[in-house]
Amino acid sequence: MLLKLSISLILIILSFIATYTMFEIFGKTEGRKNMDILKKIHRINGRLFFMIFLFGAIACIYMLSQSKAELTPRATLHAFSAVAIFLLFSLKILFIKYYRQFYSYAKLMGVLIVLLTFNLLAFSTGYSLVTGQSDRAISTKEANVETIASKDGNVENGKRLFSQLCSSCHYTDRRDFRRAAPGLKGLFKEKTLPVSKRPVTDENVTLQIKNPYRYMPSFNDLTDAQIRDIISYLKTL
Q1: What dihedral do alpha carbons 210, 213, 216, 219 form, nearest 10°?
Q2: Which of 19, 23, 138, 230 has a 20 to 30 Å separation from 188 between CA atoms?
Q3: Quick one: CA torsion of 126, 127, 132, 133, rounded to 10 degrees?
Q4: Of 51, 53, 70, which Cα lies nearest the Cα of 12?
Q5: Model pLDDT for residues 92-142, shown as the tens digit of each residue
Q6: Residue 200, exposed/middle/buried by CB under 10 A (0-12, 13-18, 19+)?
Q7: Separation CA 114–CA 112 (nearest Å)
Q8: Residue 51: which residues within 8 A CB-CB, separation 6 or more?
């Protein structure tokens, strides 16, 4: 979540710089100063924006390909905005460098790129911040849940822990992926875990909680009793 927030903040700052320099260069008919400096800032800013945007897009594509998740409507809109930004940026470069007869359209494309960037960030990082659905919504240290240590675990305490620590990423009533996290309905009726493909056993689920496969955050500070409670609850889904 911190990496996503950092990339989003940098892209917002670069978008503001791009908008300001473009308006100063093309939006004024008089009183324009330091045009050469503004144009240089605009070019450097554009290159930085494209590199950071491309890095974020590739990282997201890789995560989706590894999780095998189906796109939700929000993720689909996110992907559409990202593809549109990439295409508009590419066309803008072509119009400026090679097809000068279309140069006037490059200004409009710059505005559209900024608007689509804000739209993309609003439906990704903005959504996560507003809803509180970060990669780890509640710290295990803040859970403060009393558990009853028993061989089979306590289902009610497991349900409470799962609600506080896991429900922001995992569905319990279906198998669909939520972002990069699989739904857990009927987990212990399956032969293998949905992402790691390890056999579904208490030991492997414990391993996934303490030392996760791929992108899931680690909950290594949970006690053995708390993990038993969560596993007991998962067996009821």
Answers
A1: 0
A2: 138
A3: -120
A4: 53
A5: 999 988 998 998 898 899 999 999 999 888 877 776 676 554 444 444 444
A6: middle
A7: 5
A8: none
Residue 195, Ramachandran bin (φ over 0: left; ψ between -120 and 50: alpha; else beta): alpha
Distance CA(10)–CA(214), nearest Å, equals 26
C-alpha closest to that of 212 among 175, 187, 181: 181
At residue 41, the 3 state secondary structure works out as helix
- Written as one letter, the residue type at 123 is F
* Residue located via tokens 């945007």: 53
Cβ pair 187, 173 in contact under 8 A:
no
Q: Both tokens of residue 53?
A: 């945007």
Q: Answer whether 31's CB lies under 8 Å from 112's CB.
A: no
Q: Return the closest-CA partner of residue 169 out of 131, 119, 200.
A: 131
Query: What is the rounded CA–CA span in Å between residue 229 and residue 80?
Result: 41
Cα distance between residue 56 and residue 62, in whole Å: 10
Yes or no: say if 137 and 168 are a contact pair by the CB < 8 Å rule.
Answer: yes
The pLDDT tens digits for 189-224 are 999 999 889 999 999 999 999 888 877 888 888 898
